[in-house]
Structure formats: C-alpha cells, structure tokens
Amino acid sequence: MPKFVVPAVPLMRHGFILPSLLGVGMLLAGCNKSAPSGQVVATVNGKEVTRYELSVEPAAVNAPPGTDLDTLLPGLLNSVIDRKVAVQEAKKRDFDKRPDYIARIARINETMLAEDLFNDWTREAPAPTEPEIRAFLAANPQAFANHRVYTIDQISVASEGARDDDLKPLMTIGDVAGYLRGHSQPFGRSIVTLDSASLNPKFDAALSSQPRGNPLILRNGPVTNIVSVVEVRDEPVEMSVQREAAIAALKRKKAAERLVAARKAAQIKYATGYGK
Question: What are the φ/ψ torsions at residue 213 (nearest 5 degrees)?
Fold first, then answer.
C-alpha cells in the first residue's frame, strides 16, 4: 500500500479538504466480507466513520508537510470512535435538544460562516498602494522598525484598593508591593513578556520611555496593573517581512470595512433598553 505524505501546500481551501488527502490508503488491515470497506473505515452502532471524516480532523489537517498520515490516522480513528460513542450516549439523554446546546451550536455555525466570509473578503481585497503601505508602517513603528520585546514585572490589584494618590509617590515596584501588603490589599505579582507588536503605539511609547524599575499605573476598570520594565530587547523586523505584514493587515482592514458597509445596509431593530 503506498504511503500518503502531507504535501508542502495548504490542504484547506474555502473550508474544504483538497482531493489529494482523500487518496489515503486503507486503515484497517485484514478486512473480511463483514468489515467496513472503501471510504468507510469503521462503524459505531451502525453509524459510519469515513476516511474523509478522519482527514478533516485538526491533527490531520495541521500535520507538518512531509508527515506520513498513515501513521496518524489509526490514532485519529480511535479518538473519533470515542467521540461518536459519547455523542450517541448524549443523544440518549436528549442533550442535543437542550436550549443551551442549540444556542452554542448556532454560535459555532455563525462563527465559522463569518470567518469564512471574512477570509474571502480579505483575499478579494485589492492590494494596497505603496503610499498606503508606507503610511501603515510609519503609523505602527512598534510592530516593525522599532519592534521590541519587554520583560515586565507586573502587579495586579483591585482598583478600589489602589488609589493614584497612594501609588504615585512610590518609586519602585517593590515599594508598591510593600504598600499593598502593609494595607492588607490582596494582589498578584508575576513576570510577563510583552511583544510591542501587540501593543497600542501610545502604550509602547510610554513603556519604552519609562525608567527601568519605575512603576507605571494602568487602569483597566475594576483591575489596576502596575508594571515595571525589567528588560527591553530590540528585535527590528526585516523590511521584506514588514511589507508582507503591512499588506496583509491592510487587506484585513479593507475586509473589515466591507463588514461595516454590510451592517449599515442591514435592517437592525433594537429592543427597549438595548443601545446601538
């Protein structure tokens, strides 16, 4: 039986598996006349399990290029059988008729459809112009030319127990921890890593200009984070990668604009008490 090896190309297109994966060889050796055959690799209380079902399992779809799927699929078959047995047992208890289950399934379906549409819109978006690319790179230096990785000493505390007047005179993150302990305020402290590409440009600028060790107070509703920069590592992004990322981001932005336009065209009515 020939081996099926994962090709070094994407296997998913518009949510469907490419036909090449469907040519995987038989999974079950020593089949007899009563055993499943062809596309059907097993049955569970009479319900078929097909090779196609196995081929769209995440472990198969996301397998690294060059992976021999014949070594993966038997293990996937066992997990699929376990899931189908559990599903059949759940249906005996009418789990599939419960309102919360129906609502979750509807949400999953809606999310998948919306993601597929957004991906199509992104692919269809026209390539950005050179001025658009340059403007995007200039507006987001923290993600490109000035890309950094921060090591942060962070304290999280309930906002009601962390007044600015009490915290601002404190000179170090250690002083903040001592103050909170002295006032019996529970808090969490941890060392975290922040990638500047994920930060708001203003926050990145505040972090990069903050003297090492000095606390910076960040209000976030009921939780306040006090952070102190321990280390900064500069990791500028190569220009070719910058352009690629900028083009992708700008195409996603144009896709998002199509959603805004579709929402404006939709007839949306709100119940009393629900704002726009």
Answer: 90, -20
Q: Report d(CA 271, CA 111) in Å as an integer.
A: 23
* pTM exceeding the 0.70 threshold for the entire prediction: no
Residue 39 phi/psi, 5-degree rounding, is -70, -25
Instruction: Rank 48-52, 108-112, 174-178 by mean pLDDT and report only the highest.
Output: 108-112
pLDDT average, residue stretch 233-242: 89
> How many Cβ atoms are within 10 Å of 147's Cβ, its own excluded?
19
- The structural domains of the chain, ordered by start, are 12-95 (no CATH), 98-146+237-261 (no CATH), 148-234 (3.10.50)
Does 29 score more than 50 pLDDT? no
| The pair of three-digit structure tokens given for residue 211, joined into one six-digit string | 């003297």
Q: Does residue 151 surpass a pLDDT of 70?
A: yes
Q: Is the pLDDT of residue 222 over 70?
A: yes
∠ CA 239-242-246, rounded to 5°: 145
d(C-alpha 35, C-alpha 41), whole Å? 9
Q: Which residue has the tokens 């000095």?
A: 214
